[in-house]
Amino acid sequence: MPKTAFLTVLLAGIAMPASAQEAPDIELWRLDCGTLQLSDSESFSDTHLYDGQPRELTDSCYLIRNGEKYLLWDTGLPDALVGSSQTSGVYTVTVGRSIADQLGDLGLSSADIAMVGISHYHFDHIGQLSGFPASTLLIGKGDFDAVKAADGTGNVDPGPFAHWLKDGGGTVEPVAGDRDVFGDGSVTMINAPGHTPGHHALLVRLPHTGNVMLTGDLYHFEEQIENRGVPQFNTDRADTLASMHRFDQMASNLDATIVIQHEPRQIQRLPIFPESAK
Ligand SMILES: [Zn+2]
Q: 164 C-alpha to center of ligand 1: Å?
């Protein structure tokens, strides 16, 4: 058989249905969800990599549109902080604009957000969650188990989850392992435990920009990629290192742009709001 004929037969054999051939219509915005000023980064390494270093961290949330459906990834610091600041220990936190305010710039309201995905249960990722009661909550199973078990006295605050914890409340889908969020491979929650038991990163496969991987808090700043800084407050050191290994290898194999959600030096890796990556 001539080579070209063989190729024709081969291609015919793997022809996809028309619907699967169309690239998903995906758009990604970065929302500003506050700033964390650190007077000392000591707690971000359990081997004293950053002792005494002051550092500014940004707090990012992300909006993803797939056709008519929207996913909000992380919900930042509480919007009660808009126009004020709060200091606790080494942290001083501020919020410039609420998520609802920024959604308004796009002609959207919380009712338009089908799903809210949470990378993990820390306070700077769940601050505005309660503003999205109609949304299905996607959260790592290990994290949701910890939220369910929390009594409010430890470092897991169940407060913002109240609507999804009560009978007859919001819909929650605890995610064990990875999750194909829209069912078309365009957006995947990547299981990356260690920072918390059910911590997840997010892979977004944009048709024009290419692949983008949002870290959650697997990394907080660029140095942690280089020198494997594991925060003292992570729940599992070995899981963290395994998750870093998996994340880095996936990013390399998919030629993905890595975006560290808390890294001010990486805000420019995506268009500045209200512009979006497509
Ligand atoms: Zn964080």
A: 21
Cα(251)–Cα(258) distance, rounded to whole angstroms? Answer: 7
The token pair that represents 207 in the structure block: 């048709």
CA of 255 to the centre of ligand 1 (A): 25
Give the CB-side neighbour count of residue 114, counting CA atoms within 13 A.
10
Alpha helices in 106-218 (DSSP H): 123-126, 141-149, 162-165
Which pair of tokens denotes residue 191? 């299981």
pLDDT, tens digit, 9 for 90 and up, residues 90-100 = 999 999 999 99
The pLDDT of residue 180 is above 70 = yes
Rounded Cα–Cα distance for residues 60 and 144 (Å): 21
CB 164, CB 172: distance < 8 Å: yes
Residue 1 has pLDDT above 50, yes or no: no
Going from the Cα of 252 to the center of ligand 1, the distance in angstroms, rounded, reads 24
Q: Give distance in angstroms: CA of 245 to centre of ligand 1.
A: 20
Distance (angstroms) between ligand 1 centre and the Cα of 166 equals 26
